[in-house]
Design goal:
By secondary structure, this protein is mainly beta. It contains five helices and 38 strands. It has four domains: 146 residues, Immunoglobulin-like (Sandwich), CATH 2.60.40; 126 residues, Immunoglobulin-like (Sandwich); 87 residues, no CATH class; 188 residues, no CATH class. The longest helix has 10 residues. The protein is globular, with a radius of gyration of 28 Å. It holds the Pfam family Mfa_like_1.
């Protein structure tokens, strides 16, 4: 006998933090210090989430695989530190980790990768086999760069590689014994096997779509909801999901509306078993209730109405003593919900968690009906907090890295701009360098010609014709020192130039090196070629950074490079980059990203260039 079920879904996410720390041992000329890598679990408070492993530490006895590579992806110091087994001992803050072999650290900086659970057959971190037959919560860690004996602590966050379906089952007015003996999930949105790239989190070789994932059960459903979790491989397709439950030796069937599952999400469905059918009474877990569209009404004596752009948002409402606490959660990880517009007579407080993107609204002291109008998700104009953000393929802001991202955004000291994902790896750079000696190094252009529409600056800062900019830790590469405080970057000198966009409009017309200087393309030529290519991702506003903008990039170089690596982009080189600022008819300004020297040099010299755009 088959019965139809209508169900409601929500998603949530979880991460686990792991810290890598090195201690010391003399080995092959290393300094007399502990140069072995050890790991410990980060017990700092994490966002509350729904996942099959829901703690901030992995269970005792858990085994993970760890690899250490050079920043360019090669073997670390030519060592084979690939898939080293580590085992957790203890739990919580007292948890320690034991490895089967040491990972020795040197002055060379590297990247650490990890995945869970450990598999001795893994030979490469980009090819970890996963299967739902084991119902294991596979995880991977985003790489952390800069590990060495001098910088020997790295924070890794374990991310869920698969998706899960959680069925919350309870007995309604059903009069039978209500013994549940089997549950299965089947859909083209769901697969059984895949290969995990633990370096990026990407799934490939997905197989077993529309194959039932069946779990034997042996429990009697009661008035209290019983949760059953089914781990699945998200196929990336949008498709209906069929659930089949065997209750008292009878099959109960339902077909849920089409959905595209995302890794790291758990999709929760509440099922009530009645005499005539299975029915939905709302999502029982933490009172979550997911809505795609439409209005929501909450009765507090006065009515609170929820309207607006609610697609992709899950809601949790708690009502007590005339007070409403509403939590709005982004279904898609990495987004942040914008604050709502309000109407009505009440005290309304709003706060947004910068990490999870959850918007919390408190409504108290109602004296009339209240309307909360949702405005969707934060746009770039709403982002003011210093930090690194990511740009999705559609140009929207996201708060988590993905190889599909088209660039990153630096927000620092009141300035905000997007940095292109790649540099001379772009085909447009290669095209600009055709028949030239380099597709990486370019002239500023038109040596011995003053560009009258670009101001001339003879000093870098104050009375200094050149100097060293501090890195993000405040360290200087030498003297003279230029203050790192941007409030001093004002006046008639190069560091006060923030007009990269206006400068670049002039440089687009500078397409020769000047005189006999023909060996390299100019930075204006590269920009023109870039803008005319698919490398520009459809945006026309890219430009060459000015001295102020380029110096700000150097001051945040490590954060920028970590973010670029996370999205599979090309990191800023420890090399010299041209700014669009001009010194004189013969010289243009530059910043050396290897030590922080800022100065001016002949325009017919070949340096690098990296494009940015305003948001």
């Amino acid at each position: 006998m088959k019965h139809k079920i209508v169900v409601t879904a929500l998603t949530a996410l979880a991460t686990i933090g792991i810290t890598f720390v090195s201690c010391s041992k003399d080995n092959e000329g290393y300094e007399e210090r502990d140069a072995r890598l050890s790991i410990s679990v980060n017990t700092a408070e994490m966002p509350k989430t729904k996942a099959l492993i829901e703690e901030t530490t992995l269970p005792e006895g858990s085994k993970i695989g760890v690899s250490l590579k050079n920043l360019d992806g090669g073997d670390y110091d030519d060592g084979q530190y690939n898939n080293i087994e580590w085992t957790a001992s203890g739990t919580g803050g007292s948890q320690t980790w034991i490895s089967t072999s040491d990972i020795l650290l040197s002055a060379t900086k590297g990247k650490a990768y990890a995945y869970y659970p450990y598999n001795s057959s893994v030979t490469s971190m980009d090819a970890v086999p996963v299967t739902t037959s084991s119902q294991v919560d596979y995880m991977y860690a985003k790489p952390t760069a800069g590990i060495c004996y001098g910088e020997n602590t790295a924070q890794l966050t374990m991310n869920h590689a698969l998706a899960a379906v959680r069925l919350s089952i309870r007995k309604g007015n059903y009069t039978g014994e209500c013994n549940v003996t089997s549950i299965s999930v089947k859909s083209n949105a769901v697969a059984t096997d895949a290969t995990l790239n633990a370096e990026t989190g990407k799934l490939s070789n997905i197989s077993g779509k529309n194959t039932a994932i069946s779990l034997p059960q042996n429990f009697a459903a009661g008035n209290t909801a019983r949760n059953v979790d089914v781990i699945v491989v998200p196929s990336g397709e949008s498709s209906k999901i069929t659930f089949t439950l065997t209750i008292d030796n009878k099959e109960y069937d339902c077909e849920e509306a089409p959905i595209t599952l995302q890794k790291g999400n758990i999709y929760c469905y509440t099922l009530t078993i009645n005499d005539s059918s299975l029915s939905v009474s709302g999502v029982a877990i933490d009172n979550w209730n997911y809505t795609n569209t439409g209005d929501m009404f909450i009765d507090l004596g006065w009515r609170v109405s929820v309207k607006g752009e609610t697609s992709g948002i899950a809601f949790s409402n708690t009502v007590s003593d005339g007070t409403l606490i509403m939590k709005a959660v982004p279904v898609e990880y990495g987004r942040r919900i914008a604050k709502v517009s309000t109407a009505g007579d009440a005290e309304i407080k709003q706060s947004v968690d910068k990490v999870t993107g959850v918007l919390t609204i408190e409504v108290v002291n109602l004296k009339s009906n209240v309307t909360l109008t949702f405005n969707g998700f934060d746009s770039w104009q709403d982002i003011t907090e210093d930090g690194i953000y990511y740009v999705a393929e559609n140009g929207s802001i996201v708060f988590s890295a993905s190889t599909s991202c088209i660039g990153i955004v630096l927000v620092a000291n009141g300035h905000k701009f997007m940095i292109e994902k790649n540099e001379d790896k772009n085909k447009s750079y290669t095209a600009a360098g055709t028949d030239k000696i380099s597709s990486s190094y370019f002239y500023w252009g038109e040596y011995d010609t003053d560009q009258s529409d670009i101001p001339n600056y003879t000093n870098a800062h104050s009375s200094s014709g050149w100097g060293y900019i501090p890195d993000e830790d405040g360290n200087y590469g030498g003297d003279p020192k230029i203050p790192g405080d941007l409030s001093t970057w004002v006046g008639n000198y190069a560091l006060a130039d923030w007009e990269g966009k206006a400068n670049s409009e002039v440089l687009k017309k500078v397409t020769s090196g000047g005189g006999s200087n023909t060996s390299n393309a100019t930075i204006g030529q590269v920009l023109n070629t870039f803008l005319a290519s698919s490398d520009a991702k459809g945006y026309e506003e890219w430009y060459i950074p000015s001295c102020g903008q380029l110096a700000l990039m150097y001051r945040n170089m490590n954060k920028i490079n970590t973010a670029l690596a996370d999205i599979g982009g090309q990191m800023l080189a420890s090399d010299i980059y041209w700014a669009s600022s001009e010194d004189s008819s013969k010289k243009g300004w530059y910043v050396n990203f290897n030590g922080g020297v800022m100065g001016s040099y002949d325009k017919n010299n070949g340096y690098r260039v990296r494009f940015i755009r305003d948001l």
